[in-house]
Amino acid sequence: MTDQISEKKHTSGDGQSMWGGRFGAGPSAIMQEINASIDFDKRLYREDIAGSKAHSNMLAAKGIITGEDRDAIHSGLDQVQAEIEAGKMVFDPALEDIDMHVESRLRELVGDAGARLHTGRSRNDQVATDFRLWCRSAVDQLDTAYAGLLSAITEQADKHAASVMPGFTHLQTAQPVTLGHHLMAYYEMFNRDRSRLADCRKRLNENPLGAAALAGTSFPLDREQTSAELGFDKPMANSLDAVSARDFAMELLSAMTIGAVHLSRLADEIVLWATSAFKFLELSDSFSTGSSIMPQKRNPDAAELVRAKVGRIMGAQNGLMIVMKGLPLAYSKDMQEDKEPVFKAVDDLALCLAAMTGMIEDLKPNTAAMREAAGQGFSTATDLADWLVRVLNLPFRDAHHVTGTVVKEAETRGVDLCDLPLEAMQAIEPRITADIFDVLTVDASVNSRTSFGGTAPANVKQAVATARKALK
Ligand code: ARG
Q1: N or C: which end of the chain has fewer CB within 10 A?
Q2: How far is the CA of 22 from the centre of ligand 1 (A)?
Q3: Which residues does the annotation mark as catalytic?
Q4: How far apart are the CA of 127 and the centre of ligand 1, in A?
């Protein structure tokens, strides 16, 4: 056994290649370059080796290869894995992809036994299996990252269940809300993103292995056995579909795209809130940078980049959709272009989740500035109108009109609603009493929003308790 893997044995173009039997000459350099996927699909080595172990276990169980061959294959695969992990594998574009690198090295190590591994298998079902396994563990990693983000959000929401801030529509001050409620809105969104990934995992967890090139095989394979060993729910029912389907990857990218869109919305609010115009929060040193020329600057780079990454993730999703559109059954080489977009999008989303979790954990809200802003813009006007309905029994539309007139008066005098003298309000609606002032403060406003799902601090506390239970 050589320490350094030889570069040339079993390579294509010398009649020794995996498929060299009917070829006279080797591929041109450009053919090799456009054909090779090893640069990126080497990330599948663990999945490829696991798939080969399951396949050879099954071949031996069915008497298609001997137990000795199976054992030789397994110890060879262990060594190949160890070599890859030690950085000793020489990746050679002539060997195209990870499947051929692993098999080629296996044949060098264990000879004929290694050459029997590919019985009843094709790279088409092999790569589909590898990629599904990879996507499944990517979903599991993202799930863990989401759990971290959701609990960071929940803890901040708990701290700020009663911290009043302006709620906006059209980015105009609308009604007071609490920061806790605002954060828990993202909890709900991100939780749905997480469950979209879980749904995707259910559909992707089916086993293509045993579909062979496209039509199945004449060998008496036991596809239930390989499914069980690889943790798949069941073998895919149709061999053509098994090697052609990439909707699992498109679905994963779509779910990640929605997740990235949601992250970009929170990221944008962090950028906005950190401006000197808003001053709702201070950025922590860990997630901001300074300026090389303006000493006073603190820039929300991490938030800006989370806001931006959605472009790449959505681009990846779009890219794969276009690759797949119009492809006939079964496998086409086009489909080799499925992996890079998924790898990149998973890396990007994982990084965004980590950065967002850090930013939320470090969040330092300026509760005084938020409270002050919450009272501006006549944000309790709806509370005034509701009071007119509740206490004076005005129809809501009439109450809306009266309130509009009161707001106009306050605006003319340059005061907030709660600072408008009672007489000024009574000049518009004589039945208004001093009780009105009880509903015009921002605290009274948020405390009164106790309808299910409303912003009242008691509701936020309830939502936090529910979330904590769910996250356990
Ligand atoms: N590297 C290929 C891919 O990722 C493996 C499958 C190749 N199959 C074939 N028939 N050439 O799609």
Answers
A1: C
A2: 18
A3: 170, 291
A4: 7
Round to whole Å and give the CA distance between 309 and 320: 17
In short, whether 124's Cβ falls inside 6 Å of ligand 1 is yes
C-beta of 331 in contact with ligand 1 (< 6 A): yes
User: What pLDDT digit, counting tens, does each position of 348-404 carry?
Assistant: 999 999 999 999 999 999 999 999 999 888 999 999 999 999 999 999 999 999 999
pTM for this predicted structure: 0.92
**Centroid of ligand 1 to alpha carbon of 9 (angstroms):** 20
Give the nearest ligand 1 atom to 98 CA: 1
Give which of 212, 159, 213, 211 is closest to 184, Cα–Cα. 159
Distance 37 CA to ligand 1 centre (A): 9
CB 457 within 8 A of CB 180: yes
Among protein residues, the one with the nearest Cα to ligand 1's atom 4 is 336
Q: How many CB atoms lie within 10 A of CB 326?
A: 7
Q: Ligand 1 within 6 A of 123 CB?
A: yes
Atom index in ligand 1 nearest the CA of residue 331 equals 10
8 pLDDT exceeds 80?
no
CB–CB of 77/102 below 8 Å?
yes
> What average pLDDT does the chain have?
94
E strand residue ranges, 171-307: 172-178, 206-207, 234-235, 281-282
> How open is the CA angle 351-355-356, to the nearest 5 degrees?
115
pLDDT of residue 313: 98
Could you tell me where the DSSP H helices lie in 174-213?
Answer: 179-204
Euclidean distance between CA atoms 75 and 111, whole angstroms: 12
For the chain, percent of residues with pLDDT exceeding 70 = 96
List the one residue out of 342, 348, 200, 181 whose CA is nearest residue 264: 348
Given the DSSP bridges, would you call strands 172-178 and 206-207 parallel, antiparallel or unpaired? unpaired
Nearest CA owner, ligand 1 atom 10? 124
